[in-house]
Amino acid sequence: GQSLEQPSEVTAVEGAIVQINCTYQTSGFYGLSWYQQHDGGAPTFLSYNGLDGLEETGRFSSFLSRSDSYGYLLLQELQMKDSASYFCAVKGTNAGKSTFGDGTTLTVKP
Amino acid sequence: KAGVTQTPRYLIKTRGQQVTLSCSPISGHRSVSWYQQTPGQGLQFLFEYFSETQRNKGNFPGRFSGRQFSNSRSEMNVSTLELGDSALYLCASSVLAGDYEQFFGPGTRLTVL
Lengths: 110, 113
Prior knowledge:
The complex is a heterodimer. By secondary structure, chain A is mainly beta. Chain A contains no helices and eleven strands. Chain B is mainly β.
């Protein structure tokens, strides 16, 4: 099976940097994805790491280390609109099932 | 390009009834996945369809079923509804099965009384 663990809540101030960690247990997967979901909205794709290392997309960066079974999403120059839930997700190679973490609720304060 | 659409957006049913939810993927997308989202449970994978075939299934009872049509539209059916089935049901589409980037619809909020 597959399982992913994320912190349930993170709080930061506007302009700061925050890191949301994701540790996983899986027999095999293609890569680690990150999604953002605002309250009442649909999840939207943020980034994907198929290989180890850092991927940067504007203010957001994501990192994967397969040897450590660990990844993270880094949000820089936080804005109030970044307040949302963030989910890490994997698609397993064995049966192709998608597994999402329980999500991290980020609250950005002024 | 229009996004993923789901109908209905809200639904209220009573225990024992059945319900059918519909999902229209983005034009050109052939893979459709369904998820159940409840507070504190995150997104739970239900199943994935590609080219009218179910490719994968999550750990849900047989009361949950689905199908995909030749135009890639998909339906999900839940029979003999239980109170615990109250949730947001999300549909996501991608170009191909296994794509890491999925595009989610707004969801159908199902309430079982």
